[in-house]
Amino acid sequence: MTEWDIKKLQILRTLRDRGTVTATAEALLMTPSAVSQQLTNLAKQLGVRLLEAQGRRVRLTDAAQLVLRHAEVVFAQLERADAELDGYLRGEAGQVRVAAFSTSVPALLVPAVRQLRTAHPGLDVRIREAEAAEAYELLTAGEVDLALSLAAHAPSARDPKYSRAPLLADPLDVALPADHPLADAPGLRLADLAAEPWIFGGSGPWSEITTAACEAAGFVPEQAHSASGWTAILAMVEAGMGIALVPRMASADRRGGSGVVMRVLSADQPRRHVVAAVRSGAEEGPAVARVLAALRQAAAARETVQQN
């Protein structure tokens, strides 16, 4: 296969554009003899004659013009590669893989991705739904670049393998059947619901969050039913089978249901805390930094909405 030397091809192109060896040498900060030597070597590499004398000047042969027609395609592709690489180095291109728990996807990740598509369309964010244990396994193995989880189930802030960034304090509201006697009671507190049947997961993060919030209010909740999906939990609440603590991120799109009343627990203010984590040092990568910034922006917007 013929050897194509990009540097020598650029010299040939400059000679075509400038017209003389002297002008080419000046443009490329070379000596005229160096220009002539490089072009002689290129002709030997390609096995064709590239230049012919024309008085005191030289002109490009038809073979040289053919070579340059194909070289222009290569130069254009290299320009595109340079531009894309520059975007990658500035965090405007590349791929960032994110593992995230289910309710964080529509509440935080989707708004962040929308913002990034507008501001940095060359940045590709890939989402993988995963609970904390799996998310951190994927992060450690290098299969994702960023993990979203609840702070209670994230690695310790002292773990040197990860860098954590707090994103959101998500309030927990209580879901009551619409006809519940306390559905419109003023100043409702968790302690007022101590004798109620509760619906939450049999194990895992949501079981721990519910029991911890209730214990902080002075009682242990009686678990009447076990479920982990919010559709199932709210359907049972609507049917009068029990009550449940629901994160506001999960309930935001369900407030319009007539069979369930979402009550804010202003006095107790139970919350779950959402954090992002990356492998230590990775937060300095420009693409990951842009995704983290977009997530913080989405979290701040959600907190503003929640306060209003």
From TrEMBL:
CDD domains: PBP2_LTTR_like_6. InterPro entries: LysR_HTH_N, LysR_subst-bd, WH-like_DNA-bd_sf, WH_DNA-bd_sf. Keywords: DNA-binding, Transcription, Transcription regulation. Gene3D superfamilies: Periplasmic binding protein-like II, Winged helix-like DNA-binding domain superfamily/Winged helix DNA-binding domain. Residues 4-61 form the HTH lysR-type domain. The keyword Ubl conjugation does not apply. Pfam families: HTH_1, LysR_substrate. The keyword Transcription applies. SUPFAM superfamilies: Periplasmic binding protein-like II, Winged helix' DNA-binding domain. Belongs to the LysR transcriptional regulatory family. This is LysR family transcriptional regulator. The lineage of its organism: Bacteria, Bacillati, Actinomycetota, Actinomycetes, Kitasatosporales.
